[in-house]
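The authors assume throughout that readers already know how a fold can be written as discrete tokens. A single example would do more here than another paragraph of explanation. An entry of this sort, consisting of the sequence and the corresponding backbone structure tokens, reads as follows:
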Amino acid sequence: MRTLFSLIFCLTLVSLSAQSKKQIKEMKIKSCTETTVMYAAGKESATYKSGFRTFDKDGNTTEDTEFNQDGSVRRKEINKYSGKNKTEEIVENYETGDDDPKTYKRTTYKYNSDGNKTEEVEYDSKGTVVKKTTYVYNKNKDKQFETVYDGTGKLVKKTAYGYDTKGLKVSKSTYGPDDVLIKVVKFTYGY
């Protein structure tokens, strides 16, 4: 009976975690806990909390934590929202055998009034910029340029997107730091 209950509980949680942002908002869900049941030789051998998520009133995920079987944190992601802008902080703790297996990344995002991402900045654990990507859109709100800079502000690469008169993307041209063309990807469509 306990196994059946655990299985039903897990299936419910899996379906809950797959709920859309809209459903989470409408149902006023504040959190979701994932429980994993391990089986050996067809019998339940271990049960542990494998994940925990929290949501804000708009259905955005504010915290997403994954746990190892021993209860230690495997990965933790914290998201903060300010209007359309988002800050994401991720700490990962994988069992790598190294002295310091943790990795840390914080990313901030900025969006324009149309909801298109205009800037993405990645930081290390000391708050130092590691990478900055900017985005420019054309009058049709299609991405026209994507420019990547390193932590010092030096250009790493620039990507230009071309569109036909129907608004379909027809080319993606990537340039290196010295504006030297590296590659062109062309898109063709079949009707």
Q: What stands out?
A: The CA atoms of residues 77 and 90 lie 4 Å apart. The first strand starts at residue 31 and ends at 40. The longest helix spans residues 2-17. Helices lie at 2-17, 21-26.
